[in-house]
Amino acid sequence: MNDVQFAEEGYPREYEQAANAPAVIVTGPTATGKTRLAVALAREFGGEIISVDSRQVYRGMDIGTGKDVSEYVEGGAPVKCHLLDIVEPEEKYDLFHFLHDARGVLCDMYARRALPILCGGTPLYLAALLDGYDLSGGPPDLEARAELEKKPLSELVEILRSEAPQELFARIDLTQGFLSERFLFAL
């Protein structure tokens, strides 16, 4: 991101430095001990954990998400974990929201010189944070979307064909039944 984008997103200029500061990454499949390892590392090196999990952000969804909240307090000094239990299950939380929240936490941790330990099993969230995905843009145009929903799939395909880069359109599998919803999001 450039300075203008940082300002527009509400991140301090220091985010550039925070984004390039050392961090520990603990990732892998479900039930492999990621939380236990991240907690041990946080205790050993004075770090704090940033959850990189698309489901653990939801309050009350402890079963099936592998939150392991007890591990943050058992066996030693409590370890601070960010981005756990921050939204209600009916609230929308997606990659855009995650990046905004995680970048804010990273800035705060950088200012306090705390070691970030990124822990979780959602590869897209981790890649987006590490690779600096820029998801700037405006909110969805609900009026335009409502108009597009009225169009048949064949017309949506033609609109996409005319608007999408040719190499992207060539990779789309037009035999999938769920495409109409994806076309609406793409448009």
Q: What is the overall pLDDT average? A: 82
Shape: elongated
Beta-strand percentage?
5-15%
**Rg over alpha carbons:** 20 Å
Helical content stands at 40-55%
Provide the succession of SSEs.
HHEHEEHEHHHHH
Name the poorly predicted regions: 1-8
Q: What would you call the structural class?
A: alpha/beta
- Count of discrete alpha- or pi-helical segments spanning 4 or more residues: 9
Cα(first) to Cα(last) distance is 25 Å
Count of individual beta strands: 4
Q: In which order are the strands of the major sheet placed?
A: 1-4-2-3
Largest sheet: 4 strands, parallel
Structure overview:
It is a single chain. The chain has 187 residues and is of the alpha/beta class. It has 9 helices and 4 strands, in the order ααβαββαβααααα. Strands 1-4-2-3 form a 4-stranded parallel β-sheet, sandwiched between helices. Helix 4 (95-112) packs across helix 5 and helix 7 (153-163) runs parallel beside helix 9 (179-186). It is elongated, with a radius of gyration of 20 Å. It starts with a helix and ends with a helix. Residues 1-8 have low confidence and may be disordered.
